[in-house]
Specification:
The protein is built from 25 helices and 14 strands. With about 675 residues, the chain is of the alpha/beta class. It has a 6-stranded mixed β-sheet, sandwiched between helices. A 3-stranded antiparallel β-sheet has the order 2-1-4, with no helix packed on it.
């Protein structure tokens, strides 16, 4: 059912004029030139480009059938052959029942389809909202990495404009099998190393090549180095338990000892004779001196092995160690401590050869430090390779960035994917139901079409039109069958060009009777029985007054009181015909009919709601125009002339000719007041 019609920028409708209705029967009154033809022409051909600014609301699948001058021209003036009208057979009750049941089933199925479509729309709307929520969450990547230091912004090139594009991009990646090792902070450092101002190759860090491992394991360090045990003083030195002290004392004796003896460097008594000195020196024999020299060389070699080791400060100046300064320092300090401790122990052994010393094994701590340095060197080598292949390196870092993002936002993506899978599954199920319903509708339409083939009857349509002519008192022409689907007009024995001999009134009557049958039946045997909306534009414009009542009764009986039509619009310039169609019963009229009035003034044509007693007759209608300040002067003058003519002819019982002077005076007075 049509609920609203808007006419705009077409013919006399200079501005938007609307007709709104919720009634089956709609009566529109308007004088000639107010836009009735434009109204009906729009409904006759809504797709015409000249009506591009016009609109219609409420239509579903209804067929609109319009009777107006275009209809007459299309069906009559181009040829005297009338299109065949197929009418359902009243006798075939069984077929009619099948058709009616099929139509009811189609209505139910269409309602089911509508319900399913609403469910689909709801599911799609909910899924769209969930998608938008997921996109907003993923958009955090853009806001996080395109602000601040912007180091990783190159990973989002081409993805910073739309949330949907960024979401689709991250969705295109598969979730990594395990959490990425690197963090975005580590990626930033790698990118800065490649793109920053200090991006350059770095030299490797030297490992510690320590040559003193043999010293640490030399057995001489664990041996007590003592003198000749066959010496005369051997037993004495042994009792003293300190040969190192005795050896040291030799350094304090004079080079030459006289016969009087020399003072002892320890007790200061003159007890040291040449014989004693000789015996003591005999104790510290060549073997002793050889071992002492070997011990001294061990001490010298160990110091020489320590000296090439770079200082900790030198190591820590390297940019790759700066980041791990504390960890490197701990390993380096452990090495240095062991080496220094060993060096001190050797020195003590040199000072006291008779003492045993055990050195610490430095190989493990040095190995740990060198392993740490080797790990750093691997990073340096990787860095240098990246510098040498910067473009490929940045591509790899970009890939690692999106692996991290895909892992971090997996929960968001997974949740939407599950929601989407569930919604798609439901929608597919509903679409399957809709498809099944559509197949059922097609089957019901086949039932209708097959039954219509059994019931169409062109002869009945011809008979109905001819009977309609007789009912109106017209018996000088009729319609005869031309072919299985065509028939034409004949007058008496004339068979050719008979339509051209009809008067304008006869043409209108026959065309309206044809239109009535067209509305009742179908234009082709394959046409399905959709609901119909009927539009009738001034069917009595060329008729004598004797036919107006009959046409009005025909419209009431065949259109207003029929359940075969969804809605009816009738337009007329005749108040008599207008009120002939309007229901005199107020309650019925309020329930089923709506009245409208078309007017035209300097603002263009308008469509107004009209009360039943708003305009009682033509005299009253003229006064409405006269009172409208926006009417052109020529129209007002013409309407005032008619007002005066009505006044003198019907009220004063005088003709205008006898009261010309008075009428002119009245008209002049009126115009002056305007």
């Amino acid at each position: 059912m049509i609920t609203k019609i808007g006419l705009n920028c077409i013919a006399c409708f200079e501005n938007l004029a609307t007709l709104e209705t919720d009634k089956k029967i709609n009566l529109v009154y308007g004088l000639n030139g107010t836009g009735k033809s434009t109204f009906s022409n729009y409904l006759y051909d809504k797709a015409c480009t000249e009506f591009s600014s016009c609109s219609i609301e409420g239509l579903n699948n209804e067929i609109i059938l319009v009777y107006n001058q275009k209809f007459i021209s299309d069906y009559f003036y181009e040829s005297d052959n009338l299109k065949g009208i197929f009418t359902l057979s009243k006798e075939n009750k069984e077929s009619e029942e099948k058709i009616r049941n099929a139509q009811n089933e189609i209505t139910k199925l269409e309602k089911e389809i509508s319900n399913r479509a609403e469910k689909n729309a709801t599911l799609k709307s909910e899924l769209t909202q969930k998608k938008q929520d997921a996109e907003i969450k993923v958009w955090e990547i853009k806001t996080t990495f395109t602000g601040g230091d912007r180091v990783l912004e190159f990973c989002l090139e081409g993805l910073k404009g739309k949330k949907e594009k960024l979401y689709n991009h991250i969705s295109s990646f598969s979730k990594p099998e395990q959490q990425p090792d690197k963090t975005t902070d580590e990626l930033k450092k790698e990118v800065e190393a490649l793109k920053g101002e200090n991006a350059q190759r770095h030299s490797s860090i030297p490992v510690i090549n320590f040559t003193g491992y043999g010293v640490e394991s030399d057995k001489l360090l664990q041996k007590k180095i003592i003198g000749n045990e066959n010496s005369a003083v051997a037993e004495l030195i042994k009792n003293l338990s300190n040969p190192d002290w005795v050896k040291k004392g030799l350094d304090y004796l004079p080079e030459e000892i006289d016969d009087d003896s020399a003072r002892c460097p320890f007790c200061q008594e003159k007890t040291i004779t040449k014989t004693v000195v000789a015996n003591i020196k005999n104790y510290f024999d060549e073997t002793y001196e050889t071992e002492i020299n070997a011990l001294t060389k061990l001490f010298s070699d160990y110091k020489a092995a320590i000296n090439p080791i770079q200082s900790k400060e030198t190591y820590e100046a390297h940019s790759f160690i700066i980041e791990n300064k504390a960890e490197f320092g701990n390993l380096y300090n452990m090495v240095l401590k062991i080496l220094n401790d060993n060096n001190r122990l050797i020195e003590e052994k040199v000072k006291a050869p008779s003492q045993k010393v055990i050195l610490h094994d430095s190989s493990k701590v040095i190995e740990n430090l060198n392993q740490y340095i080797n790990n750093i060197n691997e990073k340096i080598a990787e860095h240098n390779r990246k510098i040498d292949n910067k473009e490929d390196s940045l591509k790899q870092l970009k890939k690692e960035f999106w692996n991290i993002m895909r892992w971090d936002y997996d929960q968001t993506l997974f949740r939407y994917q599950k929601d989407e899978e569930s919604a798609v599954k439901k929608i597919e199920g509903i679409n399957k139901e809709i498809s099944d319903f559509e197949k059922s509708i097609a089957a019901q339409r086949d039932v209708i079409q097959n039954q219509q083939k059994n019931t169409v009857n062109i002869d009945e349509a011809i008979s109905n039109i001819n009977n309609g002519l007789k009912d109106l008192g017209i018996d000088n022409f009729q319609i005869l069958k031309h072919s299985d689907s065509l028939y034409k007009i004949v007058r008496g024995k004339q068979a050719d060009d008979a339509f051209q001999t009809l008067s304008e009134g006869e043409k209108m009557i026959i065309s309206f009777l044809y239109f009535r049958e067209l509305c009742k039946g179908k234009q082709s045997a394959s046409e399905t029985d959709n609901k119909k909306i009927i539009v009738i534009d001034d069917p009595i414009s060329s008729l004598s007054h004797i036919y107006i009542f009959n046409i009005g009764q025909m419209i009431k009986r065949d259109f207003f009181n029929s359940e075969n039509f969804e809605q009816v619009f009738v337009l007329t310039h005749s108040l008599y015909f207008f009120y002939e169609l309007a229901d005199i019963n107020h309650d019925r009229r309020k329930e089923n009919q709506k009245l409208f009035r078309m007017i035209k003034n300097s603002d263009g044509s308008q469509i107004l709601d009209m009360k039943y007693d708003e305009i009682q007759n033509d005299y009253h209608s003229y006064w409405h125009l006269v009172k409208d300040e926006k009417q052109p002067p020529a129209i007002i003058a013409n309407c005032m002339r008619n007002v005066i003519e009505y006044f003198f002819n019907f009220y004063m019982k005088h003709s205008v000719k006898k009261s010309t002077k008075l009428s002119i005076q009245v008209l002049n007075i009126f115009l002056e007041t305007r």
